Amino acid sequence: MTQDNGCCVSVCQCFFDYATPQILVIRSRKVGAVNRLIQAIIVAYVIGYVCVLKRGYQDTDSVISSVTTKVKGIALTNTSDLGLRIWDVADYVIPPQGGEVLQRPGSPKNQAEESSFFVLTNLIITTNQTQSHCPEVPTPSSMCSSDRDCVPGFKDVRGNGVRTGKCVNYTATNMTCEVMAWCPLEVDGEPPIPPMLADAENFTVLIKNSIRYPKFNFNKRNILPYINNTYLKQCIFNSTTDPDCPIFTLKYIVSAANEDFQVMAVHGGVMGIQIVWNCDLDMPASWCTPKYTFRRLDNKDPDNTVAPGYNFRFAKYYKIADDVETRTLIKGFGIRFDVMVFGKAGKFSIVPMLLNLGAGLALLGVVTVVCDLVVLTFMKKRNHYKAKKFSYVDDFALLSETAT
């Protein structure tokens, strides 16, 4: 019973314990140096990093952006299929001119919005195709020795038409299944080197970008207020000599990404034009200007040459005698340019400033924890400090002494 009573008393005393801070002034150069060093680090972090570098005193908003593009330029080609031909913007920009993309409210912050335009740089042309019958291009599935190897109506997803059920001569030594298709069939191969539209490197593109920060009711264009029609007709973007001009040559865009335009134009590729609007709206509005960077987006792996670049097929249709529909099939290689807009704006607000200052002041509590750890664990006189730091006042004992 005595032991049980002792345990009950101990539990009761622990339950009713109350700890209150005790101020203990330790005159020690080591502890004082640690104390001031940590305080200096925390103050430097709050003021230098949070407030100055990260502008923790500002409220922020993400960009809403629209982009339109306009390509200009003329190219001249001379081929056996097409003869001497002039190519203008209606021929080599597919689809016609870049559209507009608007970032919608509610999109993730700092999300890049993208507007694309494609410029044709190389071609494989198959002329005078009509709807008729012709032998399929030789593949393991289209090769045959008799009509029994060709199922009528069969459509090979990798083929060019619908099989008629006949096995016909493709060459003097090869036989393939006959198909109903646009004949003669395209013979796919390597694109010409140098590229047919090598002059495309001199084409220019005007990029018009309008941005808005709705929280701050702030609007701006990349065609800055001082830019007039005279300047716009003669300027060409250069990051060193003319960084505000919104007109870019395609060669400059590709070169700025450390690529060779003539090499890239053979098989095509994808280029990224990045426009960054990071604006401090506590400063004059004229300081808010776009920054342009360029990079290649498609994977260019020298060890993997399968399906390189960027290409697709399209056709131009017309009718000849007897109302026969004819087409010219073009496998077009070219460069797709993706215009991506990033941005964040900040402006002073009392709420984020107080939140960040409060968080910084709370960090000062770490100083006491670290210094106590040093004093009570690593100092030679740690036992002496412990005796000074922790004092116990037993209210029950005082009551007993008073009663006595």
UniProtKB/TrEMBL annotation:
It comes from the Eukaryota. Disulfide bonds join C134-C183, C144-C167, C150-C177, C235-C245, C279-C288. InterPro entries: P2X_extracellular_dom_sf, P2X_purnocptor, P2X_receptor, P2X_RECEPTOR_CS. It catalyses: Ca(2+)(in) = Ca(2+)(out); Na(+)(in) = Na(+)(out). The chain crosses the membrane at residues 357-379. The keyword Protein biosynthesis does not apply. GO terms for biological process: calcium ion transmembrane transport; response to ATP. It is found in: Cell membrane; Membrane. Keywords: ATP-binding, Cell membrane, Disulfide bond, Glycoprotein, Ion channel, Ion transport, Ligand-gated ion channel, Membrane, Nucleotide-binding, Receptor, Transmembrane, Transmembrane helix, Transport. ATP binds at K70, V71, K72, T204, N311, F312, R313, K331. It holds the Pfam family P2X_receptor. One of its GO terms (cellular component) is postsynapse. The keyword Iron-sulfur does not apply. It is a multi-pass membrane protein. One of its GO terms (molecular function) is ATP binding. Receptor for ATP that acts as a ligand-gated ion channel. Belongs to the P2X receptor family. This is P2X purinoceptor. It comes from Aldrovandia affinis.
